[in-house]
Write the structure tokens for this entry.
Amino acid sequence: MNNQLEEQFQKLSQSYLNDVDSNCAQHLQKDRFIIPLIASVTQGIMTAVPEQVAKILDANIAPEVLLEVLYQLAPVIGTLKVKQALEQVNSVFEERKITLTPVESEADENYGAQVQAQLYGTEIKNLLKDLPDNAGTFIPHALTEHFFNDFYNRKALDVRDRERYELLALITMNVEFQIKAHARGSLKAGNSESELIWSVIQLLPYIGFPFVINSVQVIHQEAQTLKE
């Protein structure tokens, strides 16, 4: 894109970006800076990552938290995108001479499995039980061990944050069934309806109105269902 086109688009979109940011700032704190990174990495747009990482660090968000957000995306969006993002993150860390504190783990190795049971029960196991050749057994097993136990056991993020960030990645990918399940899981984990909806609104410049409007409706419906 030549400079003239870039300047023209920047001028056209800046008020839109400013409007979203200023309104989200009234409802969100650290997530205002984390959410754009989630959107970029989920979409595979790595050129945006260094600037977003710099903004996160400038907002006094711990580098361990930033890394844990990316690690948690791996079982949602795949390891390759996360590896690419980590290369960009590492260059910023090296430039700023950042040192990392080791992350502690829960004493109970099955902590993640317990969280899964509380939030989702046996939903996936029941859904996939008719798959052939043990596929219906392996996928739920892998989900428990490598989505929940491997990641949720780490103390760098709490369950509430993990559920919220996963939901935002799913919304960015527009995975309808999973959005509904994780909207409910995020609410059960302690996220408020307002916080989830404003988090999705922060995604607006990165994923557009159709995905946002569909997703906030799902969140609202699940919140109403849990109140019944």
